[in-house]
Amino acid sequence: MTTIGTVAANFTRDLEQNYSTIASYIAQARERGVDFVAFPEAAIGGYLSSLGNHGDTVKNTRRSLPPAIRLDGPEIARVQSIIGDTVIAIGFCELADDGETRFNAAAVLDGTQIYGSYRKVHQPLGENMSYSAGSGYDVFDTPIGRVGLQICYDKAFPEAARIMALSGAEVIVSLSAWPAARTATAENLQDDRWTYRFNLFDAARALDNQVFWVAANQAGTFGSLRYVGNAKIVDPGGNVLATTGLDSGLAVADVDIAGTFTAMRAGMFHLRDRRPDVYGPLVESDTTASWRDLAHA
Q1: Which fold has domain 2-295?
Q2: Alpha helix locations (H) across the chain?
Q3: Of 6, 148, 182, 220, which is most buried by a Cβ count within 10 Å?
Q4: Contact yes or no for 138/167 (Cβ under 8 A)
């Protein structure tokens, strides 16, 4: 059995507070025998304070942007000193080798090594004013199995999870700073339409690809954003095994990865039963323009 944990918590520009929060959840995870912990998008340095046309941008300010850090920098090393032999996934703002370009990024690591990293591909609501986009999805061998990473808005695109499932991902970790709706926000955030979408995507992507899905999310508020929490672990049948709900916390579930895959995929196996021969228009580059034309018609 593998014990998986996932975090909903608030992370800001205060790095010392971030490290303290990480240490607190790692301590809880150790007490519960957790092998792997997912932390949210932007858990090191916080996310943007707003989105849309008035979002944080490199052009209009540097004061409110997340600190840009390198994979081999002191911030990642500090996290590694905290987590020891616990394997984690965690989000941060990555600084490219050119010293200027920023990516909304995540990595899988433990105290001694980085197993892999990812740069967010799909960008919502003006996020491209602050970050450059990534260009691909990889799957990484880790002590808990083959792990794929994606960030927030990526979960709205079935292709993102599917390509990792086809590459052998057993666990897909989705790290988010997913807020409530900006307009007509529900009084109870659990009933908010963006909370509904967040939860629906998690269950659908797990079931689509028959993988374990681990969703981490920010909680509380930062700037104009009010986060919806709901960190969760979903099994390959789309069943939620554990969740934090709206609150900050650590959701934990024991999973039998190999046994579950054998049982789930022995009958209906979605990856085996695909029909790539009829999916051509999905990947033909000239169709991109036609879809954009439709969207703006």
Answers
A1: Nitrilase/N-carbamoyl-D-aminoacid amidohydrolase (3.60.110)
A2: 15-31, 74-83, 158-166, 193-209, 257-265, 280-283, 286-295
A3: 6
A4: yes
